[in-house]
Amino acid sequence: MILQSVFFYLFSAVLLVSALMVIGARNPVHSVLFLILAFFNAAALFVLLGAEFLAMLLVVVYVGAVAVLFLFIVMMLDVDFVELRAGFLTYMPVGLVVGVVLLAELLIALGGWALSPDLAANLGEPMPTLAEASNIEAIGALLYTKYVFYFQTAALILFVAMIGAIVLTLHHRRDVQRQNIERQVARNAENSIEIVNVEPGNGI
Amino acid sequence: MTTELATLPNLMPALPEILLAVGAMVLLMLGAFGGSKTSQVVNGLAVAVLIIAGAILLLSSGGTVTTFNDAFIQDPFARLMKVLVLIGSGFSLAMSVGYTQEEKFDRFEYPVLVLLATVGMMLMLSANDMIAVYLGLELQSLTLYVLSSFKRDSAKATEAGLKYFVLGALSSGMLLYGMSLVYGFTGQTSFVGIAEAVHVEGAGIGVIFGLVFILAGLTFKISAVPFHMWTPDVYEGAPTPVTAFLAAAPKVAAMGLIVRVVMTAFDPMDLQWQQVITFVSILSMVLGAFAAIGQRNIKRLMAYSSISHMGYALVGLAAGSSAGVVGVIVYLITYLAMTLGTFAAIMSMRRRDGMVERIDDLAGLSRNDLPMAVLLGVLMFSLAGIPWMGGFIGKWFVFSAAIEAGLYPLAIIGVLASVVGAFYYLRIVKIMFFDDPAPVFERPANELRLVLVISGLFMASMVFYVSPIRTVAELAANSFF
């Protein structure tokens, strides 16, 4: 139990510090790297809670896809972040108000669970305890049985997105050299090199 | 947790959808490995898959079946609307054959995406749960965004796709917001569950808010006023075969979805949704009629025309009665036929140097190509609702349902708007028959001529088979009553 608390405070502290550094770092690439660190620590917190599926999802989706995408954009676009941050103090009060509202909403939402514990009984599909089944088993047992129709339809939507992205962006341009491995392999010295006997002073 | 074998849900009701989805994947592989020369083959096979799916629907038994834990429902209404959607998709694909060759548009992804959009529309029509509604709608919309900007080298098509995408995402957001409100206040996502909860607890202000947001999101998809802004630009910018597809099948699917949502999930709140539908219907009819007058581009004209037609179809729904739903179904049948025929004519407007789409290009068509002028004239009379064309019969059904339900102001405004609308349809007829001839069009492709002939003859002779159509529509409408 003590070990768990120690790790909890460790991960939480790193999470908070790296979250602060995301908005504090001068170099935008560092910001994104701190964001990735924050994601990893949040995932570790999920593991401590026994929500290993959410933890893996966070790492795969947010670190693997979203943060890397951010990194690409930050590195490719020439955005002057110093200029963007110029009005920091003027926007600060509005930002603080938004933060306070968000905090209050979180407290109200979570307080609801504390105030009326029977809320958990109203869930459409109550979660089995960890002793009964792991997260992944519990989600899988619902996703592939009761919700298989939605699962498959969502898969079709992703399929359309894939076709659409290729249709709208892939250009087969004639003037671009493409690699043809068979031709490369089939080449040999006889049909690629021509030996020309150049007479001095005449050129080719 | 003990591991037990999950039982496979009953897949039979969803067989047409599964067939289309698998067909789309197989055809994609065929196109990807067969190279660009296979696009015509893929197109033909896609039409064949649509026909087989339609045959399965027609041959399946007539009862009501639900599957996937009641998320998916197959009833006579869903079957009829799905057949209409399949007809719309199939004809749009068939009409695109000639165009794709001439305009260097022949890419195998086009039929594949149309098939996937059709799957989305069929899922919408079978949705019996809010999550299923959203997923079906997104599958259809995402495909349509891609299709609108399919001609990616054209600035207009790209603009159309982007506009449609941004506004469509906004409307999906509103829809989801509405759904989350309804879920929060009723605790249910299934239509039956929502109806029960509202019945027991009454229609609270939260549920009404949710209802309004859901209807806003759904009416965007049928481009009803005040959510119509995207329609003219998208219709004009998208490649013409895509516009024909956009105007036909998705409208039928979204209208069917609205009918199901208000008739099942919000059945106990009929007073509330009737107000919304009436309001949207009046605005659509009036704006569609007046805004179309100044249009010079025939695709933009058809956009405003479709806005007003969706308004007329909503008149039937506003009545909220069995006769009203029958009216909506009959109206959609006529709308589908008229739209496909008119777009076949628009796609025939080709000169040697490319497609033309100004209304003035039709001048003197009667002297250049009399059959096309006569058939397009019939379709224009029908769109205007001149007796005894098909369009008149559709209007007759919806307006008589509105009068039966005591909605006199709605019916009167509708009739007046259709008089205004008749002006611009008849102006096209005047331009075709009485103006000095413009240069001759190229000979249209056979499939375009065929679609134009079928649709023109159907609209001209619909008065003779009103009663079988009415029987079928009543059978479908009985799913709700």
TrEMBL record, chain A:
EC number of this enzyme: 7.1.1.-
InterPro entries the record matches: NADH_UbQ/plastoQ_OxRdtase_su6, Nuo/plastoQ_OxRdtase_6_NuoJ
Membrane topology, record value: Multi-pass membrane protein
Keyword Acetylation among record annotations: no
A Pfam family that the UniProt record links to this protein: Oxidored_q3
Subcellular location: Cell membrane
A Gene Ontology molecular function term of the record: NADH dehydrogenase (ubiquinone) activity
Keyword Transmembrane belongs to the record: yes
Record's catalysed reaction(s): a quinone + NADH + 5 H(+)(in) = a quinol + NAD(+) + 4 H(+)(out)
Entry keywords, A to Z: Cell membrane, Membrane, NAD, Quinone, Transmembrane, Transmembrane helix
Transmembrane segments: 6-25, 32-49, 55-77, 89-115, 149-170
A GO cellular component annotation in the UniProt record: plasma membrane
NCBIfam families: PRK06638.1-4
Function comment: NDH-1 shuttles electrons from NADH, via FMN and iron-sulfur (Fe-S) centers, to quinones in the respiratory chain. Couples the redox reaction to proton translocation (for every two electrons transferred, four hydrogen ions are translocated across the cytoplasmic membrane), and thus conserves the redox energy in a proton gradient.
Similarity remark: Belongs to the complex I subunit 6 family.
Name under which the protein is recorded: NADH-quinone oxidoreductase subunit J
Classification of source organism: Bacteria, Pseudomonadati, Pseudomonadota, Alphaproteobacteria, Hyphomicrobiales
UniProtKB/TrEMBL annotation, chain B:
EC number per UniProt: 7.1.1.-
UniProt keyword terms in alphabetical order: Cell membrane, Membrane, NAD, Quinone, Translocase, Transmembrane, Transmembrane helix, Transport, Ubiquinone
GO molecular function list: NADH dehydrogenase (quinone) (non-electrogenic) activity; NADH dehydrogenase (ubiquinone) activity; quinone binding
One GO location term (cellular component): plasma membrane
Domain named NADH:quinone oxidoreductase/Mrp antiporter transmembrane: residues: 127-420
Membrane topology recorded in Swiss-Prot or TrEMBL: Multi-pass membrane protein
Residues spanning the membrane: 14-34, 41-60, 80-99, 108-125, 162-185, 205-230, 275-294, 301-319, 325-349, 370-393, 405-426, 447-466
Catalysis: reaction(s): a quinone + NADH + 5 H(+)(in) = a quinol + NAD(+) + 4 H(+)(out)
Taxonomy, superkingdom: Bacteria
One Pfam family hit: Proton_antipo_M
Compartment(s) of residence: Cell membrane; Endomembrane system; Membrane
Function, in words: NDH-1 shuttles electrons from NADH, via FMN and iron-sulfur (Fe-S) centers, to quinones in the respiratory chain. The immediate electron acceptor for the enzyme in this species is believed to be ubiquinone. Couples the redox reaction to proton translocation (for every two electrons transferred, four hydrogen ions are translocated across the cytoplasmic membrane), and thus conserves the redox energy in a proton gradient.
Alphabetical list of PANTHER family matching this protein: NADH DEHYDROGENASE
NCBIfam families, per the entry: NDH_I_N, PRK05777.1-3
Record-stated family: Belongs to the complex I subunit 2 family.
Subunit record text: NDH-1 is composed of 14 different subunits. Subunits NuoA, H, J, K, L, M, N constitute the membrane sector of the complex.
Protein's name in the database: NADH-quinone oxidoreductase subunit N
Organism of origin: Cohaesibacter marisflavi
